[in-house]
Design brief:
- The chain is α/β, with parallel strands linked by helices and 367 residues long.
- The chain is built from ten helices and 15 strands.
- It is globular, with a radius of gyration of 22 Å.
- The two termini are 27 Å apart.
Length: 367
């Protein structure tokens, strides 16, 4: 899959931009705060209908404006496709594919697969399990629409049960109706997550070794209350019922799942250096890319936002070798250091484009 053209109006600090891309490498050079990452976020938004930074949609509209428009022209499975996203104050966002508006935005997820590597990825290691669950859900949903449907159903049922608990309801029939939905969706979500972690770990270990060398060993372990022998969601809810009535929220279930991330048998969040954590998250994202390629039959767009900071020269070299290989498709990369970009472009055999970025304005440049 390729993004051939992108048009933006009033998106973050970008008033107007019209860009035509290389099918291989597209580089954006500029100081921090100039709009490089905003462009990548626009591309991300067209795939996921939300910002990578997860800010409110209103925050994506340029200050003092009341609307934003994003339009991308793609080549997907040898067919030309066009996506148009509209944002405006006081109205719901709209997404049109080939001029036809989606009834449900969730139906779009996974159609235009994408992987973004960004400095915020450190949160996958440092922050709470909510970050890692969100990551799992974003990746799996791109390859399994049934999973996304169960995730939405589970979220709605969980919200309903929590409302019953907050209201102090003691009606077993009300709880029973909600908990049937929780149990059904939790079983599917748990099984898919377990299978996904098992597959991803093998790919991830290979990428980490390719970047860092053979002296370090990484591991991912899926942690879920449903992994206990002879248990299911309904049993967990029954067991925690009295406790949940006291605290007035649902304390058990797949919304409490997590991933243990280890380096040489020790938790990354406690022992990993800045360089090791950066390598860890980049390897995770590259493994995510390969998983999606296999699952969807398409090469996702790869967005690399300022990824070389805090990495030694050897690891930078290995990453550049990986992402410019035939295993990866179209790449969009930002940096404040032209040296890195020149080295990457030198590996592409001339199939690249480059822009300098200043105050939301993108100017084509040449070597």
């Amino acid at each position: 899959m390729k993004l051939n053209q992108l048009s933006l109006t009033n998106f973050k600090n970008i008033s107007e931009a019209r860009l035509e891309f290389s099918g291989k490498v597209n580089c954006f050079l500029g100081n921090n705060g100039m709009g490089k990452s905003n462009l990548l976020d626009a591309i991300y938004f067209l795939s996921f209908c939300k910002s990578f930074s997860r800010v409110n949609d209103k925050m994506l509209i340029k200050r003092d404006e009341n609307f934003a428009i994003l339009c991308g022209k793609y080549e997907r499975k040898s067919v030309d496709e066009e996506l148009t996203m509209g944002l405006s104050f006081g109205k719901r966002k709209t997404l049109k594919r080939g001029g036809k508006e989606y009834d449900r935005l969730s139906a779009h997820i996974g159609s235009f697969p994408l992987v973004m590597v960004a400095p915020q990825d450190i949160d996958l290691i440092r922050e709470s399990g909510e970050e890692r669950r969100h990551w799992m859900d974003v990746v799996i949903s791109q390859s399994d629409p049934v999973y996304l449907d169960h995730l939405i159903r589970y979220g709605r049922a969980l919200e309903q049960r929590n409302r019953l608990l907050r209201d102090g309801s003691v009606d077993p029939n009300l709880y029973g109706a909600v908990e049937v939905m929780l149990d059904m969706s939790a079983e599917y979500i748990n099984a898919v997550r377990a299978e996904w972690i098992a597959k991803l770990t093998v790919i991830f270990d290979r990428y980490y070794t390719a970047i860092a060398g053979t002296g370090e060993h990484v591991c991912l372990t899926y942690q879920s209350q449903l992994n206990r022998p002879d248990t299911n969601m309904q049993a967990l809810l029954d067991e925690a019922r009295r406790h949940d009535e006291i605290v007035r929220h649902t304390s058990v279930g797949i919304h409490r799942d997590d991933i243990e991330m280890e380096l040489d048998g020790l938790p990354m969040r406690r022992t990993g250096s800045q360089g090791q954590c950066k390598t860890f998250t980049i390897a995770l994202r590259l493994a995510q890319y390969e998983f999606l390629h296999r699952a969807t039959g398409m090469r996702p767009l790869l967005l690399l936002d300022d990824i070389f900071d805090k990495l030694d020269a050897s690891r930078v070299e290995h990453i550049m070798e990986l992402v410019t290989s035939d295993s990866f498709g179209q790449i969009f990369i930002t940096d404040t250091n032209r040296t890195h970009l020149d080295e990457i472009m030198g590996r592409t055999g001339g199939d690249y484009k480059m822009w300098s970025v200043e105050n939301g304005i993108f100017t084509p440049t040449h070597q």
